[in-house]
Amino acid sequence: MIRNDEIILDLDCCGYKLYQSPSGYCFTTDSVFLSACVRATSNERVLEIGSGSGVISFLIAGKTDALEIVGIEIQKRLYEMSLRSLELNKLNDRVKFINGDIRTIKNVLPAGSFDVVVSNPPYQIHNSKDELSEKEICKTEVLCSLKDLLTATKRLLKYGGRFYAVIRTNRLVDLISEMRANQIEPKKLIPIQANIESDIDLCIIEGKRNGRPGFLTCKPIIIYDEKGNYTPETQEIYYGHKNKGN
């Protein structure tokens, strides 16, 4: 049942829909582009750290053949919204959500139990003593730092498993530093560019648990053409079906 200050969005993927609260945290294009880059096969388990209202987990369910997708979210209201979206999308056989803190959840998620870990992490450094809103918590390293994220990823990811994250370029060096400190070798970088003339301030990175050195920088994904319309690549990401490589 939809509640006050909520809307239901069509994800343009397998008919899936998502509860969102415009006054709180709503997903952005970051989540859409990240989910489009994830590879997962029919015998692989995927963990999303910081799943919010569930958008990335649902898109991965639609765009890959992943055996199981688990999302963990610390904020209870977002977690409860993801549960209602889960019922709406009838994905209980493949997707589940956990309300918990990735820093203290060792007894719930066994070590080395996932083939893929995915995250759209908070990217703003927390300096304020003021109480933060739901939206600010999602964007600020108050409940989960990059160090917390990669420490948990190292424990939960199988040897040879893949890690995917979307990050602002001004925090990319910090993320890579934490990846290597936790034995997750950076393997691929995909820049995201608003248009052909704009600076690149967003990127997606893929890493491999205990991987060998070897790094590929891909050509940028350009979101808009010169007329301000989605490029064919962006249209495929938003409205296409299976991810390439699945």
Descriptive overview:
27% of the residues lie in helices and 27% in strands. The protein has one domain (28-239): Vaccinia Virus protein VP39 (Rossmann fold), CATH 3.40.50.150. The chain is globular and about 50 Å long. The protein is built from 7 helices and 11 strands. Strands 3, 4, 5, 6, 7, 8, 9, 10 and 11 form a 9-stranded mixed sheet that branches. The mean pLDDT is 90. With 246 residues, it is α/β, with parallel strands linked by helices. α1 (29-37) packs parallel to α2 (55-63) and α5 (146-156) runs parallel beside α6.
Summarize the structure.
The chain has 246 residues and is α/β, with parallel strands linked by helices. The chain is built from seven helices and eleven strands.
Average of pLDDT: 90
What's the alpha carbon Rg, rounded to whole Å?
17 Å
Q: Residue ranges: pLDDT <50 for 5 or more in a row? A: none
Would you tell me the structural class of the helices and strands?
Answer: alpha/beta
| Strand coverage percent | 25-35%
CATH superfamily: Vaccinia Virus protein VP39
Q: What's the CATH architecture name?
A: 3-Layer(aba) Sandwich
Q: Helix fraction?
A: 25-40%
Q: What's the domain count?
A: 1
What letter string, H or E per element, gives the SSE order?
EEHEHEHEEHHEHEEEEH
Q: Sketch the major β-sheet.
A: 9 strands, mixed
